[in-house]
Amino acid sequence: MEKIRDIHNKWLFNYEYLEVKADHSVGGIITLWNPQKLGILDAEASRNYFSLICQPVGDKEIYMIMNVHGPQKLADKLKLLTSLEELMRDIPLCPRSL
Asked: % helix / strand / coil in the chain, to the nearest 5?
C-alpha cells in the first residue's frame, strides 16, 4: 500500500509495521510498533489476522498481540474461529521467559 508507506516515511519513521493488504474494499490490517520498546520474535498472518509474539525491551516476559479483522460471511467467520482456536492451542496460558 503506497499510502501506508508514505505515512510511515513522513510521520511514523521510528516505527516498524506489518500489514495484510485489503482486497478491494474488504479487509486490511496494519500493526505498528516502536522497535526501541518492543521486539518482535515471531509473526503469523492470514487474510483475517496478525499474530505477533513479542518481548518488551529489557523484559524477560514474552507476550502475544493479535489483531483480527472478522469476515462478514458466516462460513468465513467459522473458518476464522477454527484457525484462531488452532493458533491458541500452541500458546501457553502463562507468559514464557527467555
From this structure: 25, 35, 35
What 8-state DSSP symbol labels residue 61? Answer: B
68: pLDDT strictly greater than 80 = yes
What distance in Å separates the CA atoms of residue 39 and residue 66, rounded to the nearest whole number? 15
For the full predicted model, state whether its pTM sits above 0.85. Answer: no
Residue 51 makes CB contacts below 8 A (sequence gap 6+) with 43, 44, 45, 64, 65, 66, 87
Q: Give the integer Cα–Cα distance in Å for 50 and 9.
A: 22
Q: What is the reported pLDDT for 51?
A: 86
Maximum CA extent, the chain: 43
Higher pLDDT, 60 or 11: 60
